[in-house]
Amino acid sequence: MDVNASKVDPKLLELLVCPLTKGRLSYHADAGELVSEKARLAYPIRDGVPIMLISEARKIED
Length: 62
Description:
Layout: H1 10-15, E1 26-28, E2 33-36, E3 41-46, E4 49-50, E5 58-59
Antiparallel strand pairs: 1-2, 2-3, 3-4, 3-5
């Protein structure tokens, strides 16, 4: 994965919340994802754009 492709504006990260829980998200740069611990979902970042659709999120397994 291209490192620059997954970079997201830090100001944008402060504003984004999980669309399901409205809770905070953690930015995992190495995986290129925004993670909602509460919802147990990881939202992908493609070409620097967070894809905030529940249908596109990866379920986090234990």
